[in-house]
Specification:
The protein is an alpha/beta fold.
Amino acid sequence: MTGVSREFWRGRRVLVTGGGGFLGAWLARLLVDPGAEVANFDLAPGVCLAVHGLADRVAFLRGSVMDQDAIEQALRAHRADVCFHLAGQSMIEGAAAGPIAALDVNVRGTWLVLEACRRVGTLRAIVCASSNHTYGPQQASPFTEDQPMNQLDVYGASKACADILARAFAKNFDMPVVAARNVNSFGPGDPHTTHVVTGSILALLRGEAPVIRSDGSPIKAYLHARDTMSAYARLAEHASQAGVRGEAFNVTPAEPIRVDALVRLVIKVAGKTGVEPVIARTDLSQKGFFEHLSDAKMRRVLGWTPSFSLEEGLADTYRWYAEHGTGWTRHHA
């Protein structure tokens, strides 16, 4: 079951760090509808909220997660009782290119947000974005939340630290903090044109064959952004409960898919019969990559499952881009 509790979110005051990004905008869309009062704490408003028609329905509080006083002031000014911490370096390549900055914002930024929440002392739910990428190579699959976080690249290490910090604050200060380890998200309004789903759709709309940079063999899971954020909302709704407080949860569909099969599924939902993806093999860094997260804990503890199948989610996303074209970000800048 997906969706959000309208009763829980009606009148709820929510602060989202990094709330102007792709996932933050989807979260706002889910929460504003039942009556939550959402504020985006970020360096800039971003274009993604406007894409969902939310630019005037979400308050903007300018600030950095590297400034603890600013975070605390924003929490108090908005009288927030729920905080979603989404801000940070979310790109693996970006973290590798700027490791100090990535570690600073993903690790120190997380503890500053958590400390600000601790000082305010009135929040009933804090959900921190962790990552599927923390797992790295594992001996057994599907990966459960009690398996080690083995990924040692800069991004994976930074998110593992943030994940541990979230759970440590919950344990040491009795705070309702939860870490969400979500897989790759796709959906309408994704500004990251290099993402495999978005890039493949845009190529098809230009009349071109999608290009796969790898050899097509990596196996990963993909989730519609609405489902990713409905899981975050579900975690917040139950963050104060035993078995949820201080825990990490995988946010994932039941099964992963090979990248080449994923792109062929995009081609199928687009109705582009006869088109074959170009296997460029220009980036073989993830050749043979395998990642399969278990969805059992979210199903068992919170009764959460995705509302979209992968094919349904891809079809929904393709329809949106077909309607809005390839230059929508420029229209909302």
